[in-house]
Amino acid sequence: MQVIVSRHGNTFLPGETVVWVGARQDLPLVDTGIKQAKHLAQSLQQANITLNAVYCGPLKRTSDYARIVVDELNASLEPIVDPRLNEIDYGHWSGLSTLDIQKRNDGSELAAWENFSQWPKNAGWTSSAIFIANEVSAFADDLIKQHAPTDSILVITSNGRLRYFLQLIPEAFEQHIQNKTFKVTTGHLCLLVYENKKWQLKFWNEKPDSLKLCSPSLDLRHGKPIN
């Protein structure tokens, strides 16, 4: 089973002040975000990937992104909304710019999150890193139970949540933190494959075009090993 995990598209216009938008801010996609969704659909077609299911978080920026992809593919799929794909609630930082957060004297906690993915203690974030990681793990377990080994699944979520998919692969989370490569750009993808009873990471934070360049060890569309 291959699972394509995508961050949603842009929610800010060019030149607009970017603020922290978590679970409390239900922003729509802007025009460039819509184009990113359409580009993902085109990339799936060019890679000859037929989706068996599409999952997304409950916010507009993820559910609309999923809907656009499905519509562009003319697929007879209904995106499945799963709350375990919702963005993190950024507490007191919600709606603030990075500069605003620094002015709150939260600069050290901000730097720890941005550079090392360390959960802030004093920013009023709800939940916890362990809780989010456990939700992602439970979601992945359900995919294994509910889908065939040859299925291709698309998952649309947000940047804060997305990084915890790295914890499905031993040491991947720590390695990407060390390399400061755990963030995912809007409209970019990560490809995970479940094979031989374990998750493998094929790529992280790549453009949708990378789908046609990927060579997984199993041709999941036909269930045959690639020679």
Description:
This protein has 2 domains: 183 residues, Phosphoglycerate mutase-like (Rossmann fold); 36 residues, no CATH class. The protein is 33% helix and 17% strand. The strands form 2 sheets. Strands 3-2-4-1-5-6 form a 6-stranded mixed β-sheet. A two-stranded antiparallel ribbon has the order 7-8. A hairpin with a 4-residue loop joins β7 and β8. α1 crosses α2. The longest helix has 18 residues. The C terminus is likely disordered.
Search tags:
227 residues, 8 strands, alpha/beta, two-stranded antiparallel sheet, disordered C terminus, single chain, Rossmann fold
Walk me through the topology:
Elements: E1 2-7, H1 31-46, E2 53-56, H2 60-73, E3 80-81, H3 98-103, H4 107-116, H5 129-146, E4 152-157, H6 159-162, H7 172-178, E5 189-195, E6 198-206, E7 218-219, E8 224-225
Parallel strand pairs: 1-4, 2-3, 2-4
Antiparallel strand pairs: 1-5, 5-6, 7-8
Helix pairs in contact: 1-2
The average pLDDT score comes to 93
What does the oligomeric state look like here? Answer: single chain
**Record field, number of beta strands:** 8
Strand order across the largest sheet: 3-2-4-1-5-6
| Major sheet characteristics | 6 strands, mixed
Shape: globular
Task: Give the H and E element order.
Answer: EHEHEHHHEHHEEEE
CATH superfamily of the largest domain: Phosphoglycerate mutase-like
In short:
With about 230 residues, this protein is an alpha/beta fold. It has seven helices and eight strands. The protein has helices at about 30-45, 60-75, 100-105, 105-115, 130-145, 160, 170-180; strands spanning about 1-5, 55, 80, 150-155, 190-195, 200-205, 220, 225.
